[in-house]
UniProtKB/TrEMBL annotation:
One of its GO terms (molecular function) is ATP binding. Residues 4-242, 258-499 form the ABC transporter domain. Signal peptide: none annotated. Keywords: ATP-binding, Nucleotide-binding, Repeat, Transport. CDD domains: ABC_Carb_Monos_I, ABC_Carb_Monos_II. This is Sugar ABC transporter ATP-binding protein.
Length: 503
């Protein structure tokens, strides 16, 4: 028996054919990876089988019988749940309240008062069955990223889920947190649940999946057993090209290099950053690593001027302390590429061109008019170098796939010609080819005299790209190491040793 089979599935947006002729099946109890470049059609496929998008062409079969899925509830009723990258939890609700979202709360007969104890009990029983360790009395906003993922998985399993779709589930998890998720996936599989696993991270795909399906440009390219696939063969299927060469990191001597930014004893009003210090020099990539909750994002935001600072200093190239604010940061040549690009770095209803050139439009303006030809030429050049997949530069950015939105946000930052890049997870959700391109671009910028601060929860990525590494723990910078022969174990040991000391 097959759990889900699609037959010649197709989807059209206006003139654009996003998916066509998708025929493949997911078997009971398997981890089935779905891979493809940014814009290949993975999210569109998920939305079609979960009732978010209508099906323009083709058929669906569930447990070998034809089915029609018209609404998300139809999908849930069959046993299909999806966990998106952007969490679908109510922040102020406790864990067990979130578990019952969209379901009737258990109530006492006549008084109709909610049976809280029964809700908690249901949650606890489910936790035990799945071997999940999570405090359901915490509100969603008090939970760390992996705890939120666990909560969402618990919620899906409450609905008797047979096919769990995970869309880039490790995007905001550190390695150790991802381990917990992988263990849970192992338990779910043993209990007979199937997983459709969408990710750009090759190591995870090879580690977890039984079979791998590849989409390219909205088409089904093939399904291979994990044992038959290699990194190179998958990239070849995804791109019809040979795998890109991984960027190697030239060893640099930093002595005497110019300081571009100096942060000392920084603390923020909300207490997320307590005592952070680091310098950024021209010519270097500085990696910042820490476990979730270490305050990496908050530190970058404070340096850029998005968070109130209550202690410490931020100084520019001339060593003069400044009061960071987004507007003055840009003027001083500091740009932030934020993690949450959808709410912080783009305007969904504006076009790719408008999004890219908005902050620098003056550059294309005379006192009479905008020099559109020059503006378009520049946008085209950046779209080509970052391989943005779109119908053209006048397409609304909100219509692009997640990874392609990230590329536009990145291009926008490059266009403002900064001296210092503050990059928060800049390669999150981008495909392998673009990830290498972004690494290459940042290294090139460094070699041209810029300074790059690179935050990633993927430790291997930090080790691959950084010249120096600063380690953070609970809002403090606790170590700084030149990245020469550093192993992931060494960095993790620093994080955990500090954690045990409760520092
Ligand atoms: N609502 C929409 N309107 C117009 N075009 C859309 C819409 N949603 C998706 N598309 C287009 O469909 C194509 C497939 O996008 P989709 O989001 O499915 O890709 P993806 O494989 O999930 O990419 P990523 O890895 O970047 O998330 C893209 O070219 C995208 O621009």
């Amino acid at each position: 028996m097959e759990l889900l089979r699609t037959e010649r599935l197709g989807k059209q947006f206006g003139q654009h054919k996003a998916l066509s002729d998708i025929t493949f099946e997911i078997r009971p109890g398997e981890v089935h990876a779905l891979v493809g470049e940014n814009g290949a059609g993975k999210s569109t496929f998920i939305k079609m089988v979960t009732g978010v998008y209508s099906i323009d062409e083709g058929k669906l079969f569930w447990e070998d019988k034809p089915v029609v899925i018209q609404t998300p509830q139809d999908a849930v009723n069959l046993g299909i749940s999806v966990i998106h990258q952007d969490r679908q939890l109510i922040p102020s609700f406790k864990g067990y309240e979130n578990l019952f979202l969209g379901k009737a709360y258990p109530a006492n007969g006549l008084s109709r008062s909610v049976k809280w104890s029964q809700m908690k009990e249901t949650g606890e029983t489910l936790k035990k069955r799945l071997g999940i360790d999570l405090d359901l009395n915490k509100t969603a906003q008090e939970m760390s990223p992996p705890e939120k993922t666990m909560l969402e998985i618990l919620r899906a399993m409450m609905q008797d889920c047979k096919l769990l779709i995970l869309d880039e589930p490790t995007a905001s998890l550190t390695d150790r947190e991802a381990e917990l998720l992988f263990e849970l996936i192992g338990r779910l599989i043993k209990q007979g649940t199937s997983i459709l696993y969408v990710s750009h991270r090759m190591e995870e795909i090879f580690r977890l999946s039984h079979r791998i399906t590849v989409f390219r440009n909205g088409r089904y390219i093939g399904t291979v057993a994990k044992e038959e696939a290699t990194h190179e063969s998958l990239v070849q299927m995804m791109t019809d090209q040979d795998a890109p060469e991984r960027t190697s990191r030239p060893v640099k001597k930093m002595d005497g290099a110019n300081k571009l930014l100096s942060v000392s004893g920084l603390a923020t009003a909300d207490g997320k950053v307590k005592q952070a210090s680091f310098d950024v020099h021209a010519g270097e990539v500085l990696g910042i690593f820490g476990l979730a909750g270490a305050g990496r994002t908050e530190l970058l935001e404070a340096v850029y001027g998005l968070r109130k600072i209550v202690a410490g200093t931020v100084a520019g190239a001339n060593n003069e302390a400044v009061r960071p604010a987004p507007k003055t940061s840009l003027q001083r040549g500091i740009v932030l590429i934020p993690e949450d690009r959808r709410s912080h770095a783009m305007i969904g209803s504006m076009t790719i061109r408008e999004n890219m050139t908005l902050p620098v439009i003056k550059r294309f303006a005379t006192w009479l008019k905008i020099k559109h030809r020059q503006e378009k030429q520049t946008v085209k050049q950046y779209m080509e170098s970052l391989q943005v997949k779109a119908t053209g530069m006048e397409q609304e950015i909100g219509q692009l796939s997640g990874g392609n939105q990230q590329k536009v946000v990145f291009a926008k930052a490059l266009l403002s010609d900064p001296k210092v890049f503050l990059c928060d997870e800049p390669t999150q959700a981008v495909d392998v080819m673009t990830r290498e391109e972004i690494h290459r671009l940042l290294q090139r910028k460094a070699s041209e005299g810029c300074g790059v601060v690179f935050v990633s929860s993927d430790l291997q990525e930090v080790l691959d790209i950084a010249d120096r590494i600063v380690v953070m723990h609970e809002g403090k910078t606790i170590a700084e190491l030149p990245n020469v022969g550093v192993t992931p174990e060494q960095v993790l040991q620093i994080c955990y040793r500090h954690g045990e000391k409760g520092a």
